[in-house]
Design brief:
Layout lengths: L10 H16 L8 E7 L2 E6 L15 E6 L2 E5 L7 H11 L4 E5 L5 H4 L2 H6 L3 E5 H11 L18 E3 L5 E5 L2 E8 L7 E6 L4 E3 L20 H14 L5 E3 L11 H20 L4 H6 L4 H4 L8 H16 L2
Parallel strand pairs: 4-5, 5-6, 6-7, 11-12
Antiparallel strand pairs: 1-2, 2-3, 3-4, 8-9, 9-10, 10-11
């Protein structure tokens, strides 16, 4: 049986990336997406979009959403594509009729934030890293801002935080910890731990569908990815349920082989850079070959994107 993990930004660069993500999203038939709820612990739920519909995420449409529901109202973790917000709201309402009081973003990508403005209108106060809000502000100044839901000021985080101690929200007989992760998948990543339910939502800096996505144009880094995995393991115990934005649910120790794979690819790429190899030569060498047959959705562009990001960072000497 396969291990669980196997199954300096500019406005123009960020705008182009979000534009490309938007183009892929527009090829998706949102009418075919269902939002499926699963209870993970006391008052803690996960919402997942249908699989096989989203060209960007074949395993499930958009990013997963977390819901903490109870007598104090609802705390949401991420907000999905803008086109799915009514379906997400309906799924939340099947869990709770209480007010949606807070929403925290794990990172800036539109499958996690494009619904922010919609849920702000439902009454949610939005929390996120300072870097995430800054990225949204930059997008709001781009030429295509009017057509980009991530650039809508109504969806900007109202309360922001940096790399200090976690923010704590006390709701529904639970403590939600908003744990900042150093620039990993993006420059504004956050893990969210529901203490009593023992559930940890870890966004996209870990993923077990496809290879790691280090979004360098949006502030992500290889170094931060490795540090973030170590930090995540410290936030969990052996019984913690870890919820990636994409892929399957995991336990703490499932991070170990994932981290080891990143380190092995890093070492191989570093050796080839020392030999004077170009990026094209490194890609041609298929340095992920030992893992390609084991990583769900990991061949082709996913592997090349991962190796290119590793090469770029190591080559720059950062």
């Amino acid at each position: 049986m396969k291990a669980a993990w196997l199954v300096g930004l500019t406005s123009a660069a960020l705008a182009m990336q979000i534009y490309c993500e938007s183009a892929r999203a527009q090829t998706m038939d949102f009418s075919k997406v269902e939002i499926i709820a699963e209870q993970l612990g006391p008052n803690a739920y996960m919402l997942t979009g249908s699989g096989g519909v989203d060209p960007s995420h074949e395993d499930a449409a958009g990013g997963r959403i977390g819901v903490l529901a109870g007598p104090d109202g609802v705390l949401m973790i991420d907000s999905q594509y803008a086109q799915l917000t009514e379906k997400v709201l309906a799924a939340v309402r099947r869990i709770s009729s209480g007010p949606i009081r807070a929403l925290v973003n794990t990172h800036i990508h539109r499958d996690h934030t494009a619904g922010n403005a919609f849920f702000a209108k439902q009454g949610a106060v939005i929390f996120a890293r300072e870097e995430l809000r800054e990225g949204m502000v930059r997008l709001s100044k781009a030429a295509n801002a009017g057509t980009n839901p991530v650039a809508n000021p109504d969806g900007f985080p109202v309360i922001t935080y940096g790399m200090g101690e976690p923010v704590k929200i006390h709701m529904n007989n639970e403590v939600a910890h908003f744990i900042p992760i150093r620039a990993a998948h993006t420059g504004g990543d956050t893990n969210i731990k529901l203490e009593k339910a023992n559930v940890l939502f870890i966004g996209d800096f870990y993923r077990n569908y496809g290879y790691p996505y280090i979004d360098i144009n949006n502030g992500g880094s290889l170094k931060g990815m490795i540090e973030g995995l170590d930090a995540t393991m410290k936030s969990a115990d052996a019984n913690t349920t870890l919820v990636p934005g994409h892929g399957t649910l995991i336990k703490r120790d499932d991070i170990i082989p994932y981290r080891d794979m990143i380190l092995a690819v890093q070492d191989k790429v570093r050796q080839m850079i020392a030999q004077g190899k170009t990026l094209q030569e490194v890609l041609a060498a298929k340095v992920t070959a030992p893992y390609d047959g084991k990583v769900a959705g990991g061949t082709g562009s996913s592997a090349e994107r991962f190796v290119s990001a590793v090469y770029q960072e190591l080559k720059s000497g950062k």
